Amino acid sequence: MAERGCPPEAVPLPAEVRESLAELELELSEGDITQKGYEKKRAKLLARYVPLIQGVDPSLQEETRIPGPSQATAPAPKQQKPRPSHARDERFRSDVHSEAVQAALAKYKERKMPMPSKRRSVLTHTSMEAYTPPDTSSASEDEGSLRRPGRLASAPLQSDPSVEPWLDQVTQGSSTSSSASSTSSHPGGQPAAAPSAAAAPAGPAALARVGVPVSSRVSSKIQQLLNTLKKPKRPPLKEFFVDDFEELLEVQQPDPSQPKPEGGQMAVLKGELLAVGSTWPPSLLAALQQWGTTQPKAPCLTALDTTGKAVYTLTYGKLWSRSLKLAYTLLNKLTNKNEPLLKPGDRVALVFPNSDPVMFTVAFYGCLLAELVPVPIEVPLTRKDAGSQQVGFLLGSCGVALALTTDACQKGLPKAQTGEVAAFKGWPPLTWLVIDGKHLTKPPKDWHPSAQDAGAGTAYIEYKTSKEGSTVGVAVSHASLLAQCQALTQACGYSEAETLTNVLDFKRDAGLWHGVLTSVMNRMHVVSIPYALMKANPLSWIQKVCAYKARAALVKSRDMHWSLLAQRGQRDVSLSSLRLLIVADGANPWSISSCDAFLNVFQARGLRPEVICPCASSPEALTVAIRRPPDLGGPPPRRAVLSMSGLSHGVIRLDAEEKLSVLAVQDVGQAMPGANVCVVKVEGIPYLCKTDEVGEICVNSSTTATAYYGLLGITKNIFETVPVTAGGAPISDRPFTRTGLLGFIGPDNLVFVVGKLDGLMVVGVRRHNADDIVATALAVEPMKFVYRGRIAVFSVTVLHDDRIVLVAEQRPDASEEDSFQWMSRVLQAIDSIHQVGVYCLALVPANTLPKAPLGGIHVSETKQRFLEGMLHPCNVLMCPHTCVTNLPKPRQKQPEVGPASMIVGNLVAGKRIAQASGRELSHLEDSDQARKLLFLPDVLQWRARSTPEHLLFLLLNAKGTVTSTTTCIQLHKKAERVAAALMEKARLTTGAHVALVYPPGVDLIAAFYGCLYCGCVPVTVRPPHPQNLTTTLPTVKMIVEVSKSACVLTTQAITRLLKSKEALAAVDVRTWPTILDTDDIPKKKVASIFRPPSPDVLAYLDFSVSTTGILAGVKMSHAATSALCRSIKLQCELYPSRQIAICLDPYCGLGFALWCLCSVYSGHQSVLVPPPELETNVSLWLWAVSQYKARVAFCSYSVMDMCARGLGAQTAVLRMKGVNLSCVRTCMVVAEERPRIALTQSFSKLFRDLGLPARAVSTTFGCRVNVAICLQGTAGPDPTTVYVDTRALRHDRVRLVERGSPHSLPLTESGKILPGVKVIIAHTETRGPLGDSHLGEVWVSSPHSATGYYTVYGEEGLHADHFSARLSFGDTQTVWARTGFLGFLRRTELTDASGERHDALYVVGSLDETLELRGMRYHPVDIETSVIRAHRSIAECAVFTWTNLLVVVVELDGLEQDALDLVALVTNAVLEEHLLVVGVVVIVDPGVIPINSRGEKQRMHLRDGFLADQLDPIYVAYNM
Fold it and tell me: What is the pTM of this model?
């Protein structure tokens, strides 16, 4: 027998070594031992048999060998059972299923998926030793539920880890089927190994190695992704948006060919009569008293320790006396202010560990005797156990104030500083009572409890955790309790003094009903086997059956598996004494294989086939059905092989042929004595099912529970269901209880269960069971990537449908590619077998999933963590493209309605054409002076003459000190000196272009006017950043070159920078034009100041980089410059006596105009605050506004954001420093984008305490073609906010909705339209005018629009299009400039200064930035807002498209390990709110998303960086 890792020439190994190796394998696969430990021990065992490879450590041999076909096989011992090769894996596989999975995967050989990229630091695993091996106990609460063993056939060898993950191991798939014949002659043999790795062709994974920067890597992965995405399943229908209809999600139509139930209506199944024996005691406590007094020496309960030794046997006498003592103590010795602490009927928590059945039993019966209601719960191990808060809710709703526990358990509970037991999260305050013997008081001789225990009063409360994770208490009455004990006694044929071994949890469910209650009624002896002992010795329960000659045993399928794996070497065990082996989770569809395998092995050890009795139970109905042995009159057992596809439609179809997707189930016996059972439809009215239909099993019996304690609403639904016939007639006058089990009634009136309501996931119109999906995942190549039993499957609702999520724990030694390969194969297998897509598959590090009390995974807590982004996976694969099939059809662009029809349509509908204008300029001219002084140089000279000492500019530094002031005369003289230098030193002629490269300050203004004085054309350029020359200097060089500047004016410091060694690395410094340093130019006058011959002469060039990454310069004439200043002066009421504060970049747009032009034109005083100074002193801006009592203030969004973030919490400190903003009449944000309403509102709220008037903050709007279209100004109505429907907006419609309505988006007015400006909304394609209810491009006509683009190549087409557009219909004479922004106009109820109704302009976003997806128009900012809301760790986000895939880049403000939590949340948020499937999620560090000086995101730069692989992302997820 070639063991794993043995070289082919190995000697045959002795049986005991093979035994030990198998045990080791088991330990490793269970996670009880690390890979390192495994290799050490294995090397030790093999040391004597393996010839050492020269100089190689034996523990490494496994890695170095290339798998060849195994040759050596051991001579088979006579009686050897077929031995599993990877025994542990076998438990989860039925052969049929493994073959099905292999066959399914073979179909997918071609589809390759792009692997996610991960940054190296995220990949580094903690060292192996740091891992605690995960709890071996696999599976969920119903442990067996996830098992799927087959007959113990040989499994395919695991492929060598070096085989390319893309090489689909179809060879192994085929070897599975052939292996049965090839190995039959050697029962211990193994099939041939996979072909050697050397022959494996390298797949595309070679391209996609993590961490190798290939420039085309991203593009190739996206290409791969596009190749894997399936084409949509349906042809899209032609359909366009109708304004008044909801946007409808696709409703999946039932497939006409799907199977439908065809049987007749089922009849109610009646159980046998409950034969109440005359010998039966009238109540449970009467039985206890009877046995306690007449048979005091009879053993009741034996407790074992973790080594399997019996530590204590409780006799019936002891149980009776100790329960009495406890009852007496509870009723008489506990007082609260001289009142007894407890009254009959009060609830008491029982907190006992699973290793202490004795104290639990005493506590349980003590409570019953004292007429208290016991509520057994799990022992809380930490303050934040999984689900602990829900247990707190249960205790609170049950009004529990007292908890009983043992001394040892109390010592182990988490303590507060005072030494008291800590308060657990969400728990009510509890008094803890230790009930060990020494703490109890002996009752007086004459004291007898007055317990009434036969009525409808609650006897005990059992906790139950629902699918959503909420914990409820199921109340069981005294009458039900007694009836349950009697029914179980009859069904199981229990008799006095029988011995029962119990492996289950004795606090709830079958463990409690059989092992604590029914056993006492029949004076049985229970041997309780703790969970810890089962982990240490899985065979312990069989040994105890043998030792105690037990007649009955109570187990779960898990226990049968574990014993199978450990049974080798135990030759002396015998199960012949058993007459009843109750499989408590027989209702789990996958338990059939464990029962078969167990019988297969142990039949030779005396186990009779008819002994195995699966049963079905639920917390609400207690035992629902149990198989009776033939001697108790049970029919022979049955099994059914059902079609998985039929089951998903709720129909039973026997499926003998199609082997691929079937479910084999066994019966769980007959209905309980005295019970009526029926099957009803799962949803809606409880109609009876047809005979071939799956539904929820309902029971009507005296043995069911009575209610969810304290929860009347859901109690009625579950405990008082009245099933009705197809005609609507109730089938019985007595209510039924819903069991939560899905199944049907088979032949011989046997009950079959195919799943649980808790594990049901309804995807589209089909139903899937979580356990089935897990089983399929586990049947995929049993590679060593994930821990077998630590897989959770649940569904989350995204876009009105269940989406399946699968979470597994990854082994620490699994490589990135192996795991990814396993994940993609699991997806394919589930898709093939269940015909359902998995929405998200996540792998988490070992031992990090929340555990259920008895091992297994706490599924609801896992789901909670997934939804909150607290799961911290190390690998994620999302498949929204394949799963989400209910998206609305993509919108088809209908042939455009012509502009004329549009106008007519609007007129007919009574909608006005959207146009508006500011005040007329002509009659606002206030003086002859303005007419004379057409040009800015004239104005400056006039001011220097008439008010020479009037202060124009104050420049502040970070400390708030004034670094320079400039009066009219000083500015004039400085400008003259610059003009002289330009003419003499640089020898420039009129019309030459001059680049001004200055930091924000007065020098820049002087240089600007100096250029105008000598007829040169200034171009302001932001200076390069000394710390970041490589990226900022090329932009400077580019503007200088594109603007054809003949000279560069700058300061001494910047001159040195431009010619420095560092600059040489970024640009060619030899090609700079003349550089003039203006710091020390001689005091010279110019002979004559240049006066433009006509107003249309070029005054300056305004260059800026748009958010789409295009550098564009616009030409501003002298006329436009003066008109701009005049409009702003009128709108803001600027006079020489005014002071305004400005914190803006002075290089382009309105920032430049306010900084350099307006003060000179209007004569007001400007307090200049350079934005870079705020980096060292955030409060500078607000301090300046307050200090200089500025009535009008201008800033950018970046400044506002810095203030809100940096000063939000410091308003009290600022007030003490004397900052007072009540002087501000209007504070305007200068921007070229949609107003950021959230930021402006939070700024207003934060600084309200400093006196900032509520209505002061407003926004402005300008763009390349016209830098100032809207400005709030000081007069006129306040800005208005409207709420529009985002869905209509995607179709270029504007539909107003109420605030807070779903899909509403707040938009605020961009400011008042300036005097002399006219605005119209035009259709982006037909160029016709639009009505009020349409979103279109904002066109503007104004004397201060720029005259055109200044470009090197003089692209006249661009120019004509943007600066002199005409409407195609209506007013075709006016010349308009196209802003490139989408917006709409609304007539408001407010009136403006002229008494007219005010028209508000709302800017929605830049046309260039919109994303055209699914035939609709999306604005990136809306998607980004949704993404940022998805998780608190998302600091910033940007979206763009690439080959019609939506790419979302998020900045992670948190630990790198948590990065992968964001992938699913981002995908969910965008799907839910925008009906878009995210193609790629890129997670990067904070600060990676580029932002320009105005605070706008540069999405195109980001896109280029992403495609060139320059972002150094933490993680890139390619959604399938």
Answer: 0.81
